[in-house]
Amino acid sequence: MDSEDTNFATGCKFILHEEALSMREIGIGIVGGGYMGKAHAVAMQSVGAVFNTNLRPRLEMVCATTDQSAEKYRKSFGFKRCTSDWQKLVDDPNVEAIVIASPQETHREIAEAAFLCRKPVFCEKPLGASLEDSQAMVAAAENSGVVNMVGFNYIRTPAAQFARSLIAEGEVGDITWFRGEHTEDFYADPALSASWRTRGKSNGTMGDLAPHMINGALALVGPIVTLIAEVETVHSKRPTTSSASDAKDLSDVTNDDQGQIMCRFENGAMGHLFFSRIATGRKMGYVFEVTGTKGAIRFDQEDQNALWLYKAEGPEHLRGFRKILTGPSHPDYLAFCQGPGHGTGYQDQIIIEARDFLQAIETKKAVWPTFRDGMDVNRIVELAHDSSESKTWMNV
């Protein structure tokens, strides 16, 4: 084509041709079709249109525990094929990148197999069911040299990203104090029956909710160097079924309901973290407060499109926290909406993660948080359990 040609129609054809050359499909396999499996399937279908990515996901295969459920997810989410054998998904040549959205006890084996095939892996949090698992997964990832990423979605809201940039740019000065919590009330009622959530160490609050806020604390403030923790089970027995009414129908709860960590960060800041699945009234209590020498920040996920900022400047009688509504000028907002204050939602966080994963694959450059970052979270969780048992401070 003549570079001087100004014909609009011809120009459009050229532009489309250039875009076609820069785009290619990538086959995605997702292990798990439940809550997070669906979220990732929807994200992979949407990310190309939202962010105009060069890599365009193709939903190639979904894996579930039975052939029947796999077929249900295939139909519902738009996958080409399905299986009940995750190894078949990993080995399939048309599956070029893998999302692990299955129970954490399965993460290690699937990830290690995927890395043997040199396929990029996105793994939902927590990285492994234990620190040992996560260490093995990091070794496999780094030995393979392929892209790896962990799903910590809440720190990717436009408001949380904006908070990170304010802190990094010194807008609130040197950080002196951090308070974070992840609190929900889905098990606040002691009459709720036992389930898989009440069995197994990794399914307790410290394995389920705590990783999100620990990751948030590390992202906002930096490494934790010492900690002391308390972890406890408040409701030690629950009905075996929802209709159980007799003491003999009670089942032991073998994991934790809530936990707290008092810590010191590498930069000298003090901190406190709290996690609970029995926090009555809390639905999505991912909350943090950051205090610095020149200001402070507050955020609450239940109002995820707002950030509260205090600046220690100007006349005292005019000072106070001000509410900043996220809009097109904040990180990753404009791709979803052109209106300030109109807001983004939960699914949008997963789409942002999908964009970052595809970008890492395309550029062959790591995007935070990698498996090693996920392992750092597992380490804090394990030390918190150890500290709670020994009632002592622990060095990280």
Automatic annotation (TrEMBL):
<dbReference type="GO" id="GO:0000166">
    <property type="term" value="F:nucleotide binding"/>
</dbReference>
<dbReference type="InterPro" id="IPR055170">
    <property type="entry name" value="GFO_IDH_MocA-like_dom"/>
</dbReference>
<keyword id="KW-0560">Oxidoreductase</keyword>
<feature type="domain" description="Gfo/Idh/MocA-like oxidoreductase N-terminal">
    <location>
        <begin position="27"/>
        <end position="152"/>
    </location>
</feature>
<dbReference type="InterPro" id="IPR000683">
    <property type="entry name" value="Gfo/Idh/MocA-like_OxRdtase_N"/>
</dbReference>
<dbReference type="InterPro" id="IPR036291">
    <property type="entry name" value="NAD(P)-bd_dom_sf"/>
</dbReference>
<feature type="domain" description="GFO/IDH/MocA-like oxidoreductase">
    <location>
        <begin position="162"/>
        <end position="298"/>
    </location>
</feature>
<dbReference type="Pfam" id="PF22725">
    <property type="entry name" value="GFO_IDH_MocA_C3"/>
</dbReference>
<dbReference type="GO" id="GO:0016491">
    <property type="term" value="F:oxidoreductase activity"/>
</dbReference>
<dbReference type="InterPro" id="IPR050463">
    <property type="entry name" value="Gfo/Idh/MocA_oxidrdct_glycsds"/>
</dbReference>
<protein>
    <submittedName>
        <fullName>Oxidoreductase</fullName>
    </submittedName>
</protein>
<dbReference type="Pfam" id="PF01408">
    <property type="entry name" value="GFO_IDH_MocA"/>
</dbReference>
